[in-house]
Amino acid sequence: MSHDIHKYAFFLGCIAPNRYPGIEAAAIRTGKKLDIELVPLKGASCCPAPGAFGSIDLNVWYAMAARNLILAEQMNMDIALICNGCYKSIWEVNHKLKHNDELRDSVNEVLKEVDMEYKGTSNVYHLAELYYNDEVCGLNKLRDSVTTPLSGVKVACHYGCHLLKPAKDREFAGGAIGDSEHPMWFEELVDALGAEAVEYRNKMQCCGAGGGVRGYDIAHSLDITNEKLTNMTAAGADAIADTCPFCQLQFDRGQFEIGQKFGVEWHVPVLHYCEMLGLAQGMSPVELGLDLHQTSCKPFLDKLKGGQ
Amino acid sequence: MVYTGKNAAAAEAPEEPRIGVFICHCGTNIAGSIDVPAVRDYAATIPHVVVAQNYAYMCSTPGQNMIKDAIAEHHLTGVVVAACTPRLHEPTFRTATANGGLNPFRFEMANIRDQGSWVHMHDWDGGTAKAKDAIRIAVAKATKLEDLYPMSVPVEHRALVVGAGIGGIQASMDLAAAGIETYLIEKQPTIGGRMSQLDKTFPTLDCSQCILSPKMAEAGRTPGIKLYTLAEIENVEGYIGNFDVTIRRHARGVLTPNEAAAKGIIGGGCTGCGDCSNVCPVVKPNEWEFNMAPRKAIYICHAQVVPLIYTIDFDACVKCGLCITACGTKKAIDLEMQDELFTIKVGTVILATGYEAFPIEQKKEWGYKLYDNVITSLEFERLICASGPTIGHLVRPSDGETPQSVGFVLCAGSRDNTGIGKPYCSRFCCMYSLKHAHQVIEKIPGCRAYIFYMDIRSFGKAYEEFYYRVQNEGAKFIRGRVAQIQELPNKNLIVVAEDTLLGNQVQIEVDLVVLAAAIQPTAETEIVRRQFGVSCSGDKWLLEAHPKLNPCGTTTAGVYLAGVCQGPKDIPDTVAQAEGAASAASIPIHSGHVELEPYYAQCMQNLCAGCGMCTRLCPYSALSMTVVDGRTVMEVTAAKCKGCGTCGGFCPGGAIKMQHFTSPQILAQIDAFFLGGEQ
Amino acid sequence: MTSAKAYKDAALAARLSDRVYRPAEDSDPSFTAEVEKIGGTAAHLCFQCGTCTGSCPSAPRSSYRIRTFMRRANLGMKDVCLNDPDLWLCTTCYTCSDRCPRDLIPTDVIMAMRNMAAKQGIVPKNFLATVNFIYNTGHGVPNNDANRVARVKLGLEPEPETTCKYPEFLPAIRKILEAYGTKQLADKVLSEGQ
Predict the structure, then answer these.
(1) Which helix (H) or strand (E) holds A84?
(2) Domain-by-domain residue ranges, chain A?
(3) List of residues 6+ apart from A258 with CB closer than 8 A
(4) Same fold for the pair A6-126 and A148-307
(5) Mean pLDDT in consecutive groups of 10 residues from the start of chain A, 308 residues
(6) Closest CB from C57, C62, C156 relative to A21
(7) Exposed, middle or buried: residue C99 (CB in 10 Å: 0-12, 13-18, 19+)?
(8) Do B454 and C47 touch (CB under 8 A)?
(9) Global pTM?
(10) A148-307, which class in CATH?
């Protein structure tokens, strides 16, 4: 097992630092035990949101994402991030600009006005993908870092969309991660923390928030969330694990909104994988800011204690 | 081919070449995109061209007569036709050249259609300029052409058929009936192929085995058919008329009565009694039943195998010897048997290597191998077949229950451009899926059949009527490609699609899903193809010589195609093509000799230094060293040489001449292109 | 489908309005080309199998049919596409794009149409609100006081290491948004709504 320190420029996005800061805190702290060092990416902005922003003008989406990429290039570092939406913007724009000279030139033309130039020298990774990658971390190292196993709880994994799809444009090494129909790597990550990941119907379905739909038609968006919650709880899930703060927001606040709008009650705690990892490494719920979640994490935490 | 050698003018060896150029309009195929009169006028100015003419269809009788007449009138030494491709009309114009009294190899073609007007359809000036170049190059070669004489070689009065499915069986039977001794080689322990795994055949619903097994039996007992099962092609040498094919017979571990007799075991050899299998302690899944039934380490695939000889799976056998005891005095079992190699000589070859299902689990959205009750159509055939693992009672794999609703997923991996599936239509899935729907409705009262389709392609004789019948029987047709299959805890399946005619998503709960998986060539096809030097198309099916006019032939003389190895086709089409291939393969054998193009290498032995390096380079083993007048030099076995030019290009002393592609000819062409004709 | 009937009774004229598709009047071939250029996918190769709608999480709960949009893209039905409110119901989950047997990316066809609609000022306000948030703070979801308190409790700085903490990066962001006219579009459309 390697103990080389892997350093990344930490791209925060919006929702993690500004709504679920526990994810940010957990990512930084848990990384120390995994030899993953997350360095601040100073001056980063919104990725920007691929659905809401890309829908208006893909060109400005490219340029804004390129600006964030350039900040990492200037640090000579690869980017690690914690949000599927950010992954779509930052990874995909990086990929497009690396492979499309015409597009890169047109973006650089505009960025020249702010004295910046995209060069294509950095790579972009989701932290979840790095956790799974044996060359960076791997399941064994993850397992070894666990001090308080999350035993006795069933967890439904929500992969989200924009990390894996469109699969034909993604370039995950090996292919274990790249499968967008029946992947199992997230379940393996959750199992490594001592929890029991459960399979549920239509696992790869969207949370309902993306593409600007949450803002455009909240009822429509929540109806999708409600279907997912139905399938997850049918499989006995005590909690939902996600890799995307926006999906987390949709499930976490969505349960309250579903209650208000549809009169349907849900109480399924929603945790980002970094938060679960933090718990498993012994961080307290308060240190993880779990009290900031709108849907109480208490039933999950109680069940954990009961199991221990 | 009729010709009289050099004409009078050529015999006097004129100082200057005299070339005639004939430009074809091909209707508007060429004349619609190229300025033919301008090309003709240009051609007339090329050095050595004494006549340049154009005509609507040079391949027509008047067109050919123009060539013939011009040879006589202008005492031509060479003929250039600028038209389509040599693949299409080289024989036509060679004949015309010969009819005019010139050696037919004094003809050269300029391809200004397939490589000219068709690719530059919207570039009048560019296409015209390219046609001029092509003609100038052809003229340059024509000035250097020499008289050549095809070589006639005898044809071995035997044929080889590779693959003993219905296509290979039919071709072998036809060849044998035509008096040609035919070797029929099959990799499996039994002949019969895919058709023997099918239950009923569409649209007639006759039992597949019932119509196939008489043919299998006949193929097994026809004296003119030398049948080798559990055998593969090891090596191929030679050429049309004289293929030397080495066969590997895998060790079967069981002697046939003939083999036993040859070993002096009187009345011995396998009788197919099965006593050995009964005592064998090793149980393995039967691949022939798609692993849905068990077999022993000594086994037959099914009850109707031909030949009825047991086979030992040496990978599974523990050599306990119980079978030897059970076999008793027949002494049929030889646990130490080794593979056997032997070489046969045949005049022509038919490839009939068939198909297999594409690994449909790669289309993960349908959950094959992930969900118990998602099966393929070939598995369905075995499950609905009276001789199958469930004696014809269709059950779902998860619990053995009779399904009350079945979803059929068409185009499962066919018509798929994602790079995972196959871009082509597999052609018979629509029809067998209709048949499957009919079967579940007939066999299971009240069972619902849902057919998810994009288009129903019921193009054959009585096929559309069968579609009508199945619809009338109550099958539900949903016009939409299945997006996803979900599994419920009770192992029922939800088929999700859009009913595109309704414009709504449909989610239908069924007990069983049958995927009409795309087909692909068998793994052996690629190996056999390379052994015989046969091309394949981009989708890996074997390439016919011409898609319309020579669908049974290949570009390798003497090698023909039958059945699905050439492209997806159903049983009637396979049998028809097999009969066509047998007919085509019998022609050289019956005519007794074939003419080989004189495009072989010649060693100019006065220049040869005898280094021998060329002999190792030759892919066809056509070159050898010999001693002439005390000097070691190379000599060419002309019949083996394919004229590939490897040796000629390599020879450090320039001692090897490639006939019809000589260095002066090729240099003249290059000069003509780069120097614009100023040589 | 474009011609209105000059009937005196407006209700009747609407009920009996022309529902025939006439390519000469109803199709704009440049629309197909533009959609393909922005979306980077050959929409005209769609063969209407319905895999996309079958994969769509929005289809079962709305009239949004991604297959229909693909058809309209093929037929050059620009006005119908850009004015259809369903255009904004795609969650961009890309499931259709993963499964399309013609290897097209229907999601990016939708994105292209949204871009074209936005250019015409047809864009839901929530999308433009995001633009203004980013213009003002660098974030689509900005920080707030409650969150600052929470961050400090977790041992983090009140402002994350982004434009929140380093507002000196904001001018460049604003320049980019203005260079593409995105800010101007947001201001114009949002003010019209007032």
Answers:
(1) helix A84-99
(2) 6-126, 148-307
(3) A222, A225, A226, A229, A264, A266
(4) no
(5) 84 98 98 97 96 95 98 98 98 97 97 97 97 95 97 97 94 80 97 97 97 97 98 97 98 98 98 98 96 97 75
(6) C156
(7) buried
(8) yes
(9) 0.91
(10) alpha beta
